[in-house]
Amino acid sequence: MIRFNGVGVRLAGRDVLSDVTLSLSEHRIGVVGANGSGKSTLARLLNGLALPTSGDVTVFGHDTRRHAARIRRDVGFLFTDPDAQIVMPTVAEDVALSLRRKGLSPAEVDERVREVLARYGLDRHADHPAHLLSGGQKQLLALCAVLVLEPRLLVMDEPTTLLDLRHSRLVADLLRELPQPVVVVTHDLGLLDSFDRVIVLDQGRVVADSTPGPAIGHYRKLMS
Amino acid sequence: MTGVYVPGDSPLHRLPAGAKLLGLALLCTTLFLLGSPLWLGGSTVLVVLLYAVSGVGPGAAWAQVKPLRWFAVALFVMQFVLVDLHGAVSATLRLVLAVALAGLVTLTTRFADMMACFERCLAPLRLLGVDPFRVSLVLSLAVRSVPVISALATRVREAQQARGLSWSVRAFAVPLVVSVLRHADAMGEAMSARGLDDH
């Protein structure tokens, strides 16, 4: 599904990632590492927001260098700060904006927007100004705007960092229920308990790659 | 235009966005052509009636003109001193009524409908290579950025207060501009991720 082949990324004269070779096909994959270890860059490589300086990244058979726009249709991306993702003034309008390129009728757009908002408990807020939502609700809205497109893969960059405990748990529960594969970059180690695979990055290199137990143990040792 | 749409089913809500914008332009132009206090009084009654028909409620109506109150007072005083009472009443009333009418359009029109209307109006510019979607998206981003920049400004001010710093334009403006630029970068990246630049 996803292949990193000898990938290196150099930004502002610094090697952010070095010689990363991975093959990702599990359903739930976590990425952990210290600040500046290259984990957000690794996530951005998955939908062509960042491009490798050396090596190549292939997602669903497409090279991210040549087919970034195509890949973005298949790979949904959730950022840490939902305020940066919300473009339209109201909740329903922002979700509907995602469907613009789908060529759906207004009635179909309305139906899909209503359905996804109801699924994540935001239907009561459909016509509310997005900036008046709580931080957790904004993150749910950003998630709805991504999921309404039914992406084949979802990438999340620290989705719970700005959330309180209740909303963090809510996002963790939603993660478990999502039908598509998910790659999550996080500092929230509890989120990774039920994951299939955890990758640990240190100074731009993969230093551990296994099931959650051993990988998180390695990460804890690294940080102590 | 900062997302104050009030859901409803009034005749004003059902009117197409283009018709409302055209009506707004005509009414505002008429307001500035009217000189008689009698006509301006009639216009005030019309605006009040339109608000009543829309059913948005007095709170939403007041929120449209409230930010204008100090400016309206200053305008009235200036006109009264420089012109006369009639000039002061006319100028202030025209301004308040025009803002109230614009607010009414915003209160009864979904922003997406407004965007769609702009895109239709700008469609002929495609011949010149202009993408109407991008233009309406820029407008949408401008509207969406108002509460975001306001929140960033509050954060910078609170950080200064927490550090016990006295008020300084430079100490306020520099972190605010840096935060706004960072936000713009993040928003650009998020829009790319959502495929909004794939046109």
TrEMBL record, chain A:
Keyword Cell inner membrane in annotation: no
Domain of life per record: Bacteria
UniProt-recorded Gene Ontology molecular function terms: ATP binding
ABC transporter domain span: 2-224
Annotated signal peptide: none
Keyword terms of this UniProt record: ATP-binding, Nucleotide-binding, Transport
InterPro entries: AAA+_ATPase (IPR003593), ABC_transporter-like_ATP-bd (IPR003439), ABC_transporter-like_CS (IPR017871), ABC_transpr_CbiO/EcfA_su (IPR015856), ECF_ABC_transporter_ATP-bd (IPR050095), P-loop_NTPase (IPR027417)
Family per similarity comment: Belongs to the ABC transporter superfamily.
The protein, known as: Energy-coupling factor ABC transporter ATP-binding protein
Taxonomic source organism: Nonomuraea indica
TrEMBL record, chain B:
Annotated transmembrane regions: 21-39, 45-63, 95-112
Membrane topology classification: Multi-pass membrane protein
Keywords, comma-separated and alphabetical: Membrane, Transmembrane, Transmembrane helix
Subcellular location: Membrane
InterPro entries: ABC/ECF_trnsptr_transmembrane
PANTHER family: PROTEIN ABCI12, CHLOROPLASTIC
Protein name, as recorded: Energy-coupling factor transporter transmembrane component T family protein
Organism: Nonomuraea indica
